[in-house]
Amino acid sequence: MVRSSFTPEAYVVSRQPKENYKAVEYLAHKPIRAALRIGVISVDGNGFADFDDLIKKAKKEAAELGGDFVLAEDSGVDSRTVYSPGYSKYQANAHASYGAYSGYGDGKAEGYSVGPSITTVHRPWSVFSVWIYAPSQLGLRLDENNNVNGFHLNSDGEKAGIRIGDQLLGVDGNDVQDQAVIIHLMTVNPGNKVELTFQRGAQRIERKITALPN
Predict the structure, then answer these.
(1) How far apart are the first and last CA of the chain?
(2) pLDDT at 31
(3) Which of 69, 74, 83, 86 is nearest to 33 (CA)?
(4) Closest CA to 171 of 160, 179, 163, 141
(5) CB-CB contact of 190 with 213 (8 Å)
(6) Which residue among 115, 123, 130, 137 has the highest number of C-beta atoms inside a 10 angstrom radius?
(7) 177: which residues sit within 8 A by CB, 6+ positions away?
């Protein structure tokens, strides 16, 4: 048996449950594609469960939530000592019969005892975060400081006047450092126009580009 619990963190869009849990990806590292973390699933197994069982259970719960992938956050094994006090069993049968002048009897007894025992049970546990993909992306490649260092093949960013080295500050008025920018991207569909704010040297500029499929 594997138990699980879900702690929600964000509820942004209505997501339909997936028909098959196999449609949910298990990833060890966050993908490049824009995605929003909607909560955390904690999974505990019994002494017979293994890590694959925990992943399967997490993916099933994520599928019910409409998640696109689960990301491994932490895991370990709890070792517990189980004490059994032992038990005894005793059975006895007897029979006697007496005639007019004679009689006889017989008896039988049997028993066994199992003494106390101590067993160590190992129970694996894991914590997975549940994510949903944004439907669209900006078509820009950014470094760790949100500086533009490349463009998607189908991006109209260069045509709109964006240059390599421009630092992205905001998306449709949302600060790029705030999680609200990801929440906003959940409402942007491919083909929509998105207004971006950049820092270029001492100058702040705004450009509009077309959102691409994520």
Answers:
(1) 37
(2) 86
(3) 69
(4) 179
(5) yes
(6) 130
(7) none
Question: Mean pLDDT across the stretch 90-98?
Answer: 48
What are the residue ranges spanned by the domains of the chain? Answer: 82-119, 136-214
What is the amino acid identity at position 64?
Answer: E
- Mean pLDDT value across residues 165-186: 91
CATH 3.40.50.150, domain 136-214, yes or no: no
Structure tokens, 135? 């439907």
41 touches 62 (CB < 8 A): yes
CB 193 within 8 A of CB 210: yes
Surface-to-core class of residue 19, CB atoms within 10 Å of its CB (0-12 exposed, 13-18 middle, 19+ buried): exposed
CB neighbour burial string for 157-175, b if at least 16 within 10 angstroms, e if fewer: beeeebeeebbbbbbbebe
Say yes or no to pLDDT of 164 above 80: yes
pLDDT of res. 117: 77
Query: What is the arithmetic mean of pLDDT over 115-131?
Result: 86
Confidence class for position 173, pLDDT limits 50, 70, 90? very high
Per the listing, tokens 């039988």 go with 108
Between CA 18 and CA 24 the distance in angstroms is 8
